[in-house]
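Subject: Interface between my chains keeps coming out wrong

I've been trying for a while to get a sensible model of this assembly. When I model each chain on its own everything looks fine, but I need the whole thing in one frame so I can look at the contacts. Pasting all components below, labels as-is. Any help appreciated, I'm running out of ideas.
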Amino acid sequence: MNLLGLQTLFVKEVRRFLRVPGQTLLSPLITTSLYFLVFGWSLGSRIQEVDGVPYARFILPGLVVLGVITNAYLNSASSLFVMKLQGTVVDLLVSPLSYAEILGAFVAAAVARGMLVGGIMWIVGSLFTGFGVAHPVLALALLVAVAAGFAALGFLTATWAGSFEQVNFLPTFVVTPLTFLGGVFYSASMAPPALRWLTRSNPIYYLVETLRWSVTGRADAPPEAGFAVAAVLAVGALLAAYGVLRSGWRLRG
Amino acid sequence: MPGPVVRLRGVSKRYGDFTALDRVDLDVEQGEILALLGPNGAGKTTLISIVAGLVRASAGEATVLGRDVVRDYRFTRRAVGLVPQEVNFDPFFSVEETLHFQAGYFGVRLGTERLEEILQALELTEKRHANTRSLSGGMKRRLLIGKALVHEPRVLFLDEPTAGVDVRLRQQLWAYVRRLRARGTTIVLTTHYLEEAEALADRVAVIDRGRILLVEGKDRLLDRQGGKTLRISLTAPIAALPGALRALGARLEEGGGAIDVDAPPSGSFGPALAALAEAGLPVGDVETRRARLEDVFVSILGGGAGKETP
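Reply #2:
Try treating it as a single job with all components included. I did that and got this:
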């Protein structure tokens, strides 16, 4: 195993996102603060509680899931895509790094960014809601699996993509709508029947609900469902990304 | 005697209906500089890329130091350095960081001494902390060479290494390539400039339409395929050649203002000069010209290739 190679690529990828903290860390911090100002603080004073949980505390897990997903995805997607664009992907392809080492380093760095952003969002949100977490280890495990799955999806997308527009397609047109319709701001059981059906057909809803259960101890869906979705997503996306990398599609001639 | 550093046997590469490489056999010997010459799209970069691991062959076998480039990729890639044709750079990092990262990918910790040597040899010491985005085109190209050398490869592939580099720097890079060779690094070079191959190469491989047409020692090739020409410029044009010069194969050029006499590389112009003196022609100037690699290259490709060989 090329341990130094794996470690080098991981460190390089982490330094890359730390070089642009305004874009990678500050931006989600501001966005989360705004969500809490608008939804948690001003609106929350009218909504009071959902399923027995204060509204600001109710929306925090969903926002953290959104932050983790988006940042893990964008880290591997934008990094690999820029490497393709700049031609520096050649540096990796001629190196003795194995496919698993390349993918492992990209995914680990993307998970690091996702967890860092998720952690910042959680700290900012908790200033409004309190810092208690019912099941911290399970919450962490869920988020790491979710981040790894979306990091692998980002890697896959960047392999396929020919433009930045294609890289941004998944977060803009798939992840954000699914997350917002995944019960971040509302409880499915309180929604009208059509929206309830739509919400419960959405896999991201189960991730949000399971994290909500991990943080508050209460949820609208069985927590096992979220862990199952996260596990299937992580394993499926990692295997798909590994297979595509190994095939050389769009990377090796 | 050790076997070739790089060996290709029956290597083909097809992209759909297009054949980029067609059953190529080639050996690159330890410590030599081999120039790979061919016109646009001849397959030079594809060939290099297969050995370096960037492209997968459709058929055949490529080995480095006797190990298969696919099955034993960790071994062969540690033995190979590639300077790609396209300039690339990572805009997030400095020159020094870039070199450290590249070494790390190869499982090597870049020591201070080695780092200093590379920076000095490529005249990048002053730019070591500069972001790669701020480097000039020539500096970026030198950084590519530095990246290819960080893991001290046994064989270095230079794909158009001096394209866009000024004359002074080109001379320095040539000197550095010679130093690398003197230290035992085997070098395979494709180049835009035939004079580069002429100045550096020990052997020349000519490739066209995916097939190797010829592999031969440069000097031997020039001797065999080349020759030399004596040009006698006259101060006043003449209507016809004297019989003695015609018998030596001389020909009139420039509307009768010059006479050319061809000879093999080891031949003598003595008889032609004697015949010239005997004829008492009004001689203005005499010069000889040896055939250059460019002439040989054009003649091998049937006159269809220009000077460019990317």
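Reply #3:
Confirming on my end. The two ends of chain A are 25 Å apart (CA to CA).
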